Automatic annotation (TrEMBL):
It holds the Pfam family Fer4_8. The keyword Cytoplasm does not apply. The keyword Transport applies. This is Pyruvate-flavodoxin oxidoreductase-related. It comes from Anaeramoeba flamelloides. CDD domains: TPP_PYR_PFOR_IOR-alpha_like. PROSITE patterns: 4FE4S_FER_1, 4FE4S_FER_2.
């Protein structure tokens, strides 16, 4: 008998899933969940093993499976699912192949490039006819850029492997068709791929009906399963598989599988019919929807079918229709013809993918070949790529195009293509949602809890009323502090609208700074409700603060207006910036979807379940927030006529901005990127440097203000600032007096030139600061207290632009390779989209200050590529001469090789330049001595980063003065050819500092093979590993850097093995510079290590310990310096340097920079929720693994002592 899930689950969501899964007699009850959960719900029960690797947006499936397994949930075979995380998708597919060969029903979850890494093993699985199911949240395969949103490029890139492909159009279908796939793979011995649109379905929450375990069991072909297991690879009946085949037999073996693929569609249909008898939900290999005598028929698959269905239901008399593709492979012409109306004259095929250079996209080609000889015209088009909206209005445009005598072929819909002019125009939104549906839009900010609260609202409403619900959430690319928009729908009928809300009954603006920045009322219906979180609580104050255009829109739409100071309430009850529960209480009170008292009781019940693990004090604070929230709502009875005539504010005179900022970035910042035409976008997805500084988010509640009277000018505040918005400057008295706002300074101390009369300033950018408080907390003299952002913008906002853009840098007063001196150098990494208090970014920023401006960066995919390279925000910038960081991202797995390619390219091109210079020097008498001396100096400083840069500037200056005009064209065409070539190759004059940057998920796991190869080379390059000890970007999954007992995604009951020592492995090569640093804990050691790494002429590896939001640090990331110092003090982190330069000298190559650990590591670990949560969830595991972790740290330190002693003995012998 299966274990009752509710008795062992500590997860609210999981309890709900199983509460209804073991009783087939009762009527099915709707349960809210997203597509990822639905796929896992089935795959967990129908599989023996899950072999996984994280990739957005499929990661959650593996997380749920691991969590449920840790909690003891049984599959239909009476066992927990065995979940294994591999080092890459390639590794996962290889292990899956081995498991399937050996007789285990095995599943995996993946997406995008991850799926492509599985292709070789997909061929093997299909060729050997091994049952398995891959669940894929389909996503763009990155080309000119990386996108985490949906299209079908990943799936279509694998359609030739021999897998069967099932496509789902909504969350209910994900659950149902996942089961069909698992049943059919056992029956047919053909591997299946079950796919659904990433984010649009994988993360959309809607209520669905579950299928019980007993029903799943009843559907299984146990004889087929028995046959599979008994014929798996086993010494009891030995055989050889995976053979090498010659030309005589390979072709025949391939064709021998035809009969299995021919029968597969009918077998799939049999299971669809069986499911219909049990649940009433009928599916077909192809499903038709629309007029029985349709003349134009759309063919589509995935979430794109939903707006088409809605449009057809809205206009039932139009002779149009839709064929929904369920089973994409094997493609069945017979089943397709069975569904196509005999009246059809033209078919329009919609593909959610672009296949460059082809005669048509994949689905189009299948349909076109199916209809050969029928006389039916086939038109193809593309839609929805990278999650682009596809709405009923666009559906109408597609049908109108199909009704033309000469329709546009190969069209696009949803964009403006003003180059190839393939795009179709479409009209205003068409309301096609089911009648009686209430639609809501919530404008929140990343990290404020709005999304989580809205997910709770869906659960509360759908579980406690007869209403159906749907929720979809739009996120900014910023790791935190970006705009989030929640789109919720509730109604008496099932909702499958796979597009954003366009007519909202309720609009809530959670941040007043959004007013005037975004078109907040675009979706608001006439007479609907608007709630503003604002500190203007009287009508007079509100009228004075709101822009005239905003008041006009409110009046024009006759909106019911309510205000509440949720931010003040949140501060009052101790929730900081989290206004989510306050605004959620307001929603329940005003929406009337439930009686107020009942909704408040349910909301508090949800709060307790959500936050009890964090302590009852947190629960009580949220209770208080809810109570104050419903008491504090104020209705504003504005004068509609007067507001409708409000004076429109004059647009501020625009400051001259670069073309990219004005034409690309500004529309994107207003969330109007869909209006950008093709012609405006740069080929290859490139963007110029330093664009992020133009955003000026200004979302922090408070920012630091420098109090100079106590300052000791240590510059620690600047070094630890994650966003480069706290900086020191040296100014003359005249420069201070010319500042646009009052500027407080003190006399600069410690200058090289004792006679220099310079003032010292710490300047903050209040617009860009995230309010993390790192600078405030690291300051030894309390010189940076926090003050309200608005006040600081008014008092010092203009001074930031003045000092960063106008005041000359005085870089000769301090040594660059010191903590203090480095901070006077312009950081060429600034204002990134990283989390407030991010522990990674100070190390990157420091690299640019020590080695800029001639820096090349190869960046692995991950957090550092998202905050470092998300279009259009580029935090990597240039100096005032236009030279700066050249940055690029290839993939997750190949970053080391990518960086190697860069350095080899530069090395080769510079060597050619060197040959040319030497050729010129052979005839030095033909040129002026000044020019020859410059070339000789360049040869002398050829390999020196900073000196070659200085010489390159002098050579360029000489050319401009003697050889070229202002346009860079040669004045004298008869000039020596080699002299001309030097100018043509001037970009290669300066030596480049090559950096390969990535997180521990890359360096320790998926990219380790390539990294190891680079370590074994002798190239002059530097590797910076940002060690957060988890996959930060995909939600905090365990990596091989995760320490024992650490609770992370995929290690719900605490990691069982210890942390991989990447540094120690690298040291075994002997010729690699290796250091482990933490800039927040020991800035001096970090600067010294980076300096030595840059100076080493071979490979250097610097691992930087980085506190992360995924650690759950109880005092927050604002206390990073304090927390990391404790980590070093207690021996959790060890700082060291291994310098090969010291071989052959009287210095030990290995230096331990941290002191002998002091007691207290257990206390330290409890300050991170990733360790403390294990004690609450799995106390027995906690006791065992925490002791092992403490011993791991002790053993590591002792191994370092042994390492140091070993080299010390060598020194003594010498």
């Amino acid at each position: 008998m299966l274990k009752d899930f509710t008795s062992i689950s500590k997860s609210v969501e999981v309890k709900k899933l199983l509460r209804f899964s073991t009783n087939t007699k009762k009527k099915s009850k709707k349960v809210p969940m997203d597509g990822n959960t639905a796929a896992t719900y089935v795959s967990y029960r129908m599989s023996d093993l899950a072999i996984i690797y994280p990739i957005t947006p499929a990661t959650n499936m593996g997380e749920y499976a691991d969590k449920w397994s840790a909690e003891g949930l049984k599959n239909i075979f009476g066992q927990e699912l065995d979940v294994t995380e591999m080092q890459s998708e390639g590794g996962a597919s290889g292990a899956l192949h081995g498991a399937a060969t050996s007789g285990a029903l095995t599943t995996t979850y993946t997406s995008s490039q991850g799926l492509l890494l599985m292709i070789p093993n997909m061929y093997k699985l299909a060729g050997e006819r091994l049952p398995t199911v891959f669940h894929v949240a389909s996503r763009v395969v990155g080309g000119q850029g990386l996108s985490i949103f949906c299209d079908h490029s990943d799936v279509m890139a694998t359609r030739q492997t021999g897998f069967a492909f099932m496509c789902c159009a909504n969350t209910q279908e994900v659950l149902d068709l996942a089961l069909i796939c698992h049943l059919a793979t056992i029956k047919t011995s053909i591997p299946f791929l079950n796919f659904f649109d990433g984010f649009r379905i994988s993360h959309e929450i809607s209520d669905i009906e579950l299928i019980s375990d007993e029903t799943m069991k009843k559907f299984v072909d146990w004889d087929a399963l028995k046959y599979y297991k008994q014929n798996s690879l086993n010494p009891e009946h030995p055989e050889v598989r995976g053979t090498v085949q010659s030309t005589e037999v390979y072709f025949q073996h391939l064709e021998a599988t035809n009969k299995f693929y021919d029968s597969c569609p009918d077998q799939v249909q049999d299971y669809m019919d069986l499911l219909a008898k049990e649940t009433g939900r009928q599916y077909h290999v192809f499903d038709y929807h629309g007029h029985p005598e349709a003349e134009q028929v759309i063919v589509a698959m995935g979430s794109g079918v939903s707006p088409v269905e809605e449009y057809l239901d809205k206009f039932p008399n139009k002779k149009i229709g839709l064929i929904k593709v369920r089973l994409f492979r094997p493609w069945s012409k017979k089943h397709f013809h069975d569904q196509l109306p005999s009246t059809c004259k033209r078919v329009v095929v919609l593909d959610r993918v672009k296949e460059h250079g082809s005669s048509g996209e994949p689905l189009f080609l299948d349909v076109a070949s199916t209809l050969i000889g029928t006389g039916i015209d086939v038109v193809g088009g593309r839609y929805g790529i990278s999650g682009k909206e596809f709405t009923p209005a666009m559906v109408e445009a597609v049908y109108k195009n199909s009704q033309r005598k000469e329709p546009r072929r190969g069209f696009t819909i949803g964009i403006i293509d003003d180059m190839t002019r393939l795009s179709l125009d479409y009209g205003e939104p068409i309301d096609c949602v089911p009648e009686g549906t209430t639609q809501c839009v919530f404008w929140g900010i990343g990290g404020d809890g709005t999304v989580g609260a809205n997910k709770n609202a869906i659960k509360i409403i759908t579980e406690n009323t007869d209403l159906h619900g749907q929720g979809y959430f739009v996120y900014s690319a910023h790791k935190s502090g970006g705009v989030t928009v929640s789109h919720l729908r509730f109604g008496p009928k099932k909702i499958t609208s796979s597009y954003l809300v366009t007519d909202s009954n309720y609009t809530a603006v959670h941040y007043k700074s959004y007013i005037g920045k975004y078109d907040l009322l675009k979706t608001a219906k006439y007479g609907s409700t608007l709630v503003l979180n604002t500190d203007k609580l009287t009508l007079k104050e509100l009228e004075e603060s709101l822009p005239g255009s905003f008041k006009q829109e409110i009046a024009k739409k006759n909106l019911k207006l309510y205000v509440i100071d949720a931010s003040e309430i949140a501060q009052k009850v101790g929730l900081g910036e989290r206004v989510n529960m306050i605004m959620q209480a307001v929603f329940f009170k005003l929406s009337g979807v439930l009686p107020v008292k009942e909704s408040m009781d349910l909301l508090k019940k949800a709060i307790k379940k959500e936050y009890l693990r964090k302590g009852m004090d947190i629960v009580q604070k949220n209770y208080n927030a809810v109570d104050l929230g419903i008491e504090s709502i104020i209705e504003m009875n504005y004068d509609q006529e007067r507001w409708s005539k409000s004076e429109i504010e004059k647009a501020e005179k625009k400051k001259d901005e670069p073309w990219f900022i004005e034409n690309i970035m500004r529309p994107l910042l207003k969330l109007e990127g869909d209006k950008l035409p093709v012609s405006k976008l740069m080929n290859g997805g490139r963007m110029p440097p330093g664009t992020s500084k133009y955003e000026k988010r200004g979302f922090a509640i408070s920012v630091p203000k420098w109090h100079p009277e106590n300052c000791i000018q240590c510059n620690l505040c600047s070094l630890v600032c994650p966003h480069g918005v706290v900086r020191p400057f040296l100014l003359t008295k005249e420069e201070v007096e010319n500042a646009p706002q009052k500027m407080q300074t003190i006399k600069a101390t410690g200058l090289k030139d004792k006679k220099a009369e310079l003032e010292f300033l710490i300047q903050v950018s209040p617009y860009d600061c995230t309010g993390c408080t790192n600078c405030t907390n690291v300051c030894p003299r309390d010189c940076l207290p926090q003050f309200p952002t608005k006040r600081e913008i008014e008092e010092q906002g203009k001074n930031w632009e003045y000092v960063t853009e106008t005041v000359p840098f005085k870089l000769d007063q301090f040594k660059r390779n010191t903590v203090k001196g480095s901070q006077f150098h312009q950081p060429l990494f600034e204002v990134s989209g990283a989390c407030a208090g991010c522990g990674e970014t100070p190390a990157i920023k420091l690299v640019t200050q020590l080695f800029g401006p001639e820096i090349m960066v190869a960046n692995a995919s991950g957090c550092s590529s998202v905050y470092g390279g998300t279009y259009p925000w580029n935090p990597y910038t240039n100096d005032r001469d236009g030279i700066g960081v050249a940055w690029s991202n290839s993939l997750f797995e190949d970053n080391a090789e990518f960086g190697l390619g860069m350095v080899k390219s530069m090395k080769h091109q510079r060597s050619k330049l060197k040959l040319i210079v030497n050729d010129v020097l052979k005839n030095e008498n033909e040129h002026k001595k000044e020019f020859i001396d410059l070339l000789k100096e360049w040869l002398e400083q050829y390999s020196d980063l900073h000196k070659s840069f200085k010489v390159s500037k002098k050579i360029k200056k000489y050319y401009k003065e003697h050889f070229v005009d202002l346009n860079g064209d040669f004045i004298n065409n008869s000039l020596d050819c080699n002299v001309k070539q030097i100018w043509d190759r001037k970009d290669m004059l300066a030596q480049k500092s090559q950096w390969i940057i990535g997180g521990d998920g890359w360096a320790y796991d998926i990219g380790y093979g390539g990294l190891d190869h680079i370590l074994a080379s002798e190239e002059n390059l530097n590797i910076l590993v940002l060690d957060t000890e988890v996959y930060s970007n995909t939600g905090g999954q365990a990596s091989k850097s995760t320490p024992r007992s650490g609770v992370a995604q995929f290690t719900a009951n605490g990691k069982a093995t210890g942390k991989k020592d990447l540094g120690l492995i690298a040291m075994t090569y002997g010729n690699v510079y290796v250091a482990y640093i933490c800039p927040q804990a020991n800035p001096n050691q970090a600067v010294k290590a980076l300096k030595e790494a840059g100076e080493w002429p071979g490979v250097s590896l610097v691992i930087s310990y980085a506190p992360c939001i995924a650690h759950g640090i109880k005092n927050g990331l604002g206390r990073a310096a304090e927390h990391t110092k404790e980590a070093v003090r207690t021996g959790y982190v060890h700082l060291y340097r291994f310098n090969p330069r010291n071989f052959g000298t009287n210095k030990n190559p290995f230096t331990i920079d941290s002191k002998k650990p002091k007691p207290g590591i257990e206390k330290f670990l409890m300050k991170q929720n990733r360790f403390a949560s294990l004690k609450r969830s799995f106390p027995e595991e906690f006791e065992k693994k925490q002791k092992q972790l403490a011993q791991d740290c002790k053993n590591r330190y002792e191994s370092y002592l042994s390492f140091k002693e070993m080299y010390g003995k060598d020194l003594k012998k010498k």
